[in-house]
Amino acid sequence: MTDEQLSRLSEISHRKKYSVGQVIMSDQEPVTFFANIISGTIKLTKTIADGRQQIVGLLFPPDFLGRAFSRNNPYFAEAASDVEVCMFPNEAFERLIDVYPDLKHRLFERTLDELDAAREWMLLLGRKTAEEKVASFLLLLARRSLVVACPNEKPSLTRFELPLRRADMADYLGLTIETVSRQLTRLKAAGIVGMSDTRTLEVPDIAALVDVAGQGMAL
Asked: pTM for the whole thing?
């Protein structure tokens, strides 16, 4: 982005923090803001007729939350961890991307990326084994941690925090809690991942995790 574009965005933006478990955006409420995730993880959920909720997506830095050019939000957005976002009022943001068409183009590209990721996740849920599902989820987290890492640093292993509880992981992957725990134990026993504490995972060799997740993974 050019200095001018960054300056204009800065003029309409402000930062906001949310604590873990706090609802950021409610299902079907009017859209009033568009946000860029600075830190933390946000889970997107849908409520079905009997009141149960299903996790339908996860957002990480530097993803965007909200729907430009839409008047209603189709899901709940909840802080899966402590979250900080950079918020833009929807109307002001939409006026700005009309002034800078290349920003609209980048937003469109981001939307297509999200569509591709959703299709990949449909494949994972429908065709992959429990081991491949858990490995694919950890691979997604590992790759996201590399995206936000300092480009000048080349760590010998990838380390990241698990943003979801076991129950949420099971919900997201279409598995039971017991199955998720069992597959994590197997991956640790095989040396594919390590755990320095209850929430911090280490991946000494991304290629080995890719093999377990299934060749050609493109999350």
From this structure: 0.79
